[in-house]
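Hi R.,

Here's the chain you asked about this morning:
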Amino acid sequence: MKLPRRARGPPWDDAIRVWRGRVRWRVRALRQSADRTYRSLRGLEKTASTSRVLNLAALAARNVGNFEHQQSPFFAATSLNGAVIVRHRLRDQEREAFDRVRFTATKLIVPFERSDLGLGGHSLFVAERGWLDALEELRGEAPDLARDIAVLEAIDELPSLDPFLLREHMKRRGFHISPSHFEISAPDLAKMQRFVGAEIAKLIELAYRETDGQEDNIARLVEALLSAKTDDRLEPLRVTLRLEREHYREGIFAWKGFLYYKWVLNTLWGNLRDVFNELGRVRVVGPIDAETSSELEILKNRLRQKMERQVKAVLKHLNVYDEVFQQLTVEGNALAFRDFLLKSPEMFLSLGDGCGLVSHIATYWRYQFPRAKPLAANIVQLMDTLQDFELSLGASVDAADEPAPEPPPWSRSHACV
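And the predicted structure, written out as tokens:
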């Protein structure tokens, strides 16, 4: 008998191990929803922006009466401005829809009802075979199809949907979109500017050593660096880095991306520590048999290993950056840093993907288990959440083949990146 499409393809060890031995609650879970994606999105109805989700429906609801939001939308098609865009980790059967090997993709979901994402909707993956025909059907008769295609392709170039990077990237690509689509609070922006200022103070001293009023210029230069526009004030920086003009903007954007992710990770360590601690203490509400309880503990241990491995991979990328930046600021080796920026796109994408996964786990865990509320869930909810986390983190981990894990970076006093 021919197997259904979703059951074919490479081995699905992670999914099998997570679901094996739990038929009773698995059936209950499947009855609750045919697609975990929409169940997860329902929980994000009040959240407009995360590293993995851009909820345009929620943004539209928050900006009713905001003239600029309506005049400078994300898309030309009204239907798409109520969509939810997800940075999605592809499952084995989903990868078959693409002409090249991909592990993540941009998923566009146009909900049936904007106020209740749990009802589902029409969806497509950017760049999957036939996606342009599907997009045209979703848009209806709206004008400027080419612009909406270009917007989605620009979004698909990014490793995550962090508001700051998304805003900067869309500006670089020449799209005029209202700032109200990018939820970056003023305090967060100020904190990030202070962080970037501290990070690049030595470089500014090196590049502007012959300029009067250097200290007074640091804040202004940080603002210029974080701007999407090419600023003449940064010309000495371009000269210091020995970047040709055609490579300058791309190099600076990659650099901003590394600085942004360093800042994000500095704000995440406390949340990640909480996830690790609470993972061992979360209580199951309701009946649970011995076999399911054992499977739950195995899943928790496997998830801890995968999270530690992901964090170490992210730190490895940042350590490469730190080493090269030190060569620039301490040894005056501008060529090493320039070469790093020119060759960094692949590393930047990997860093962004890893940072997005870590951020997603930390923020979604806190959504599921708010502070000051009981740290408890029924077995369906808990297993569903942990399985989503595990599958998003990728390949399986065989505990027998893995060395004993080192303490995670947030457990050490010098861990801050």
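Confidence is low (pLDDT under 50) at residues 1-12, 14-35, 396-417.

Let me know if you need anything else.
M.
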